[in-house]
Amino acid sequence: MLKIGLLGCGRIGQVHARSIAQTEGARVSAVADAFGEPARMLGNKTGAKVMEPIALIESADVDAVVIGTPTDTHYKFIHAAAAAGKAIFCEKPVDLSADRIRDCIKAVEAAGVPFLTAFNRRFDPNFANVHARIAAGEIGDVEIVTIQSRDPSPPPIGYVKSSGGLFRDMMIHDLDMARFLLGEEPVSVYAVGAALVDAEVGRLGDVDTAAVTLSTSSGRICQITNSRRASYGYDQRIEVHGAKGMLRAENVLENTVEIANSAGFTKSPAQHFFLERYEAAYRAEMAHFVDCIANSKPIEPGIEDGLRAQLLADAATRSFQTAEAISIC
Amino acid sequence: MLKIGLLGCGRIGQVHARSIAQTEGARVSAVADAFGEPARMLGNKTGAKVMEPIALIESADVDAVVIGTPTDTHYKFIHAAAAAGKAIFCEKPVDLSADRIRDCIKAVEAAGVPFLTAFNRRFDPNFANVHARIAAGEIGDVEIVTIQSRDPSPPPIGYVKSSGGLFRDMMIHDLDMARFLLGEEPVSVYAVGAALVDAEVGRLGDVDTAAVTLSTSSGRICQITNSRRASYGYDQRIEVHGAKGMLRAENVLENTVEIANSAGFTKSPAQHFFLERYEAAYRAEMAHFVDCIANSKPIEPGIEDGLRAQLLADAATRSFQTAEAISIC
Amino acid sequence: MLKIGLLGCGRIGQVHARSIAQTEGARVSAVADAFGEPARMLGNKTGAKVMEPIALIESADVDAVVIGTPTDTHYKFIHAAAAAGKAIFCEKPVDLSADRIRDCIKAVEAAGVPFLTAFNRRFDPNFANVHARIAAGEIGDVEIVTIQSRDPSPPPIGYVKSSGGLFRDMMIHDLDMARFLLGEEPVSVYAVGAALVDAEVGRLGDVDTAAVTLSTSSGRICQITNSRRASYGYDQRIEVHGAKGMLRAENVLENTVEIANSAGFTKSPAQHFFLERYEAAYRAEMAHFVDCIANSKPIEPGIEDGLRAQLLADAATRSFQTAEAISIC
Amino acid sequence: MLKIGLLGCGRIGQVHARSIAQTEGARVSAVADAFGEPARMLGNKTGAKVMEPIALIESADVDAVVIGTPTDTHYKFIHAAAAAGKAIFCEKPVDLSADRIRDCIKAVEAAGVPFLTAFNRRFDPNFANVHARIAAGEIGDVEIVTIQSRDPSPPPIGYVKSSGGLFRDMMIHDLDMARFLLGEEPVSVYAVGAALVDAEVGRLGDVDTAAVTLSTSSGRICQITNSRRASYGYDQRIEVHGAKGMLRAENVLENTVEIANSAGFTKSPAQHFFLERYEAAYRAEMAHFVDCIANSKPIEPGIEDGLRAQLLADAATRSFQTAEAISIC
């Protein structure tokens, strides 16, 4: 039975607590939060002890930590957990600075602790199915990856200010997905973007509508588009064109019902809320973490994947700012 | 070059004229109509002679006749054409009386002339594809056939009065389709129906909403529903469930465009107009007729199929009237 | 907090235990089973007491009972629970005999206890959405209901022997769904069927392929087909054609992925396993039961619905045996 | 009645002859070809005179010319037709050199003759429907356009050599479509590409797999992918994301049939052959040309559109060669 300590009892911490409850061989043994109330509530619900973060990390009753606290605290908790020899499940992004992520990598590698960077979308049953079938050779060598990723509605402007920008905050998921599906590292990044949804975003130097093109050394291509709004729900689609065929994962709709009338044939919108859309992904992600630790399997995506995605997001940001394609080494 | 004489220059006659123009190895050589104007117009358009019906049938310049005149004239034109040794393409229904169809069969068989009963839907590329794949064994033995057939809007009440009733006028297409897909003759018919669209139809003893169940001696089942209205276009769907799988042909939509917005994902309505919906079927039907004559192949559906469908429509009518299942021998 | 006692710790009892765990305001307080091991296991998992059935029913620690035991035990447990004044959640069918269900109704009505007949499909989010939109008038008056219901693979022949026959065992779900969607009571039933999957089923006097037609006094029609096999998964579709449009709920597929290659565009099969296909329905069903009791709302479907469905299944069986349409009063 | 002279009696010339036959108010009055046989055959079929090209252009029996000859002959025929005051329907590309197109523009403008650049895809009923609905404001301001355009199989290597490269030969259609849908002129072009289908293409300096990103001055974005192969047919999809919703046109499949079996649910491949896929577009394109001339309406796309698309193709080629984004003025 893997005893897990939760750092952060906010929305994402509660998601992970529910996932753990549905995972064989694991339980929440301790929780911590900067604020007393969320910690107390989650402690009651799970029966776990409420502790201070560092005490939790060092507790003998904790085998692994889930870091779901604000991004700027990841660095210290990763170092503390590595020092304590605990397995680490860390929300993305690992850090907004690639150099600081490199520091974390050193600490994690020195300690030899398991580490999962929580790119939850890799565990979505639909996207995972696409990945597995590429690996099984169903479409031959990958040639073109297309990712459409659009939020149902823009975040508050306050969030935008501290987000690191669309490329680091939102597109980072798609950049990781691109690496996951391309099967090769991108060597160049080209980005365009604009503030078409909210001019205030533009005044902050950020964008809410963007597109990126990645290419790999063998010539594989990935195109990504992002928008901070989509009237029809949370738009999350991928498509992979290979030498022998094409695989695509369509949106997950609210239900399977279709109405037919003089307007035509109408299906329901896509599921709106990311916690609902990716509920199965969060569960599978936690199950993977627990299984890898229990059975000493390598964890993917690891901390190196966290760094790679961050470097692509940095490059995309620079490409947008300079209007030039950026080479990645 | 097969020289075809057209009897009837109304809407369906014009359809056949266009089909002939697109068919290799055939041309319209003569046209006839009870009214002068339609005959003159179609004659101009096709370059064919305008003649009196019997003269047309007997003309040396006519190898085959297309009978597209009102149903109550079919009988005499079939007899005349058989007597003249001409191949016959006859619109459905052959006649509203099964006994009179039997008379026609005698005449046609005695003369040994080719005969096609124009159940155009058998030639629809989608339905024909389903039939061909059943024949190829793709779904194993047929078990359940489901046919949904709904007109976009009801005909004028005057038409209803002389139509022979929904089962003989509208469902006869589906009864032929059922025979086409079941691969066995139905041995029992059960029908229900009501006037849900227009109460006046009910006062005339007819229905505008109906359902039929057919079963064959080996236990295969077919369910059919008809409605005289469908707000979403001309609803024409078939589905065949077999031992190894299922084949279905969906509606033909106006276009492939889908709009996504807060209402969901909306595709266009189904094509509304039967001449548009079955344009390809009419063309393939004529091509089959011309090809069978040119190459001395057996024609399907023949006049016997016209009789069989009529007997099923009669049985369905009787079942509706008596509320009992009717056996067919 | 509603304290629920589970009678029956087999597959369906475990499903209900999981649903209760996800339902606010309810917990499993006691479990009982004819066998010791399943009861012990479920007791451990839920923390509930293991008791004898009648003791459980009468326990002060039990407010409501879930009857998930074999059908022939329902009668006695319903009477005991009614006598003890406990709310009742009873698996379908209530009983295989309509007269015995009428006895149960008397006992339940005399005791005034809440009763839910567990027709879980009414709670499927897709089918419930169709029902809600009919009620909201989106398609006008209902005219034609079509239900396709096909199991992925046949049950063991031993199960067939004691099942009461396809109409009472399998189609009863669809007959309840028909009532749910038609909005009127059927007044006639016509059934056909055959043993096309397994001849042994036919030798037992049962069928594995069947079709039923229902009609109501105002002329509404429902067609149902059942098959004990479907190579493409658990086929569960409904379609409702109304005066103003059509609503349909399509199958729930395993995932949203489509592969395109020279064979065409292929989506995954439908979910195969009924517990997976109806997982959300089981959860919503339990939530409805708990909510109705907590807030003194009327429960639907009630025990009367259990009787009505049984009467339709009886009539369908008789229709199949006599080859005649059966009137329902 | 518009008398049309056809220059070029090859495959595309025959397509236009068929379209004219189906267009009210127009007929083929003369045909010309560099080779005798194709001209003679098309002359026979249409009843048109066979002439030498320049004689045809200058003939009093020709009101308009359709230029369907090899690209390098367009220049002289455009000049001749403009000098003769004839309306011009010219296959794309107008010329492989932007400067020579500018010469043609001068000649056409000086003569004041109507001119259509045959970007047939604008007339596809599906794509035209998307364009019309954008214009009607159904999705608000356009933000992101995505175009997937993939041929079913690569052309002969000999064709590749003289094609001007993928960007000028194949993607030019998509670049015109991008302008058509964006509603603004692109101001920057970024292209990547590789020879993933056939290494020989790469040795010639060309690509068979490519992606382009366009952006406009207001920040609208278009992403295009091209491949010279697609096992599932002729892949032709567009998608337009706007402020209020999204419009997309899916592939046109061979038929509407779906088979369900243990592999899942399989629809037919997309139509493979461009003449079949765009048959309706060719017809609508010719009808537009004839209608605009008959009723003195402005023709779109005109010769300026031919130039604009060529400039984008040139810029994409340069971007691919330099790995830099190219600005367009």
Task: Give a nutshell description of this structure.
Chain A is of the alpha/beta class and 329 residues long. Chain A has helices at 11-21, 36-46, 53-58, 71-83, 98-111, 125-135, 157-161, 166-169, 171-182, 199-203, 274-277, 279-294, 303-322; strands spanning 2-7, 26-32, 49-50, 64-67, 87-91, 115-118, 142-150, 186-194, 209-216, 221-227, 235-242, 246-249, 257-261, 264-267, 326-327. In chain A, a hairpin with a 2-residue loop joins β13 (257-261) and β14.
Radius of gyration of chain A: 20 Å
Mean pLDDT of chain A: 96
| CATH topology (fold) name of the largest domain in chain A | Dihydrodipicolinate Reductase, domain 2
**Percent range for β-strand residues of chain A:** 25-35%
- What is the correct CATH architecture of the largest domain in chain A? 2-Layer Sandwich
CATH class of the largest domain in chain A: Alpha Beta
Please state the overall shape of chain A, judged from the principal axes of the Cα atoms.
globular
Main interface by residue count? A-D, 40 and 40 residues
Largest beta sheet of chain A: what is the strand line-up? 12-11-7-10-9-8-15
Q: CATH homologous superfamily name of the largest domain in chain A?
A: Dihydrodipicolinate Reductase, domain 2
For the record, give the distance between the C-alpha atoms at the N and C termini of chain A, rounded to a whole number: 42 Å
Q: Bin the helical content of chain A.
A: 40-55%
Q: What is the number of helical segments of chain A per DSSP (H or I, 4+ residues)? A: 13
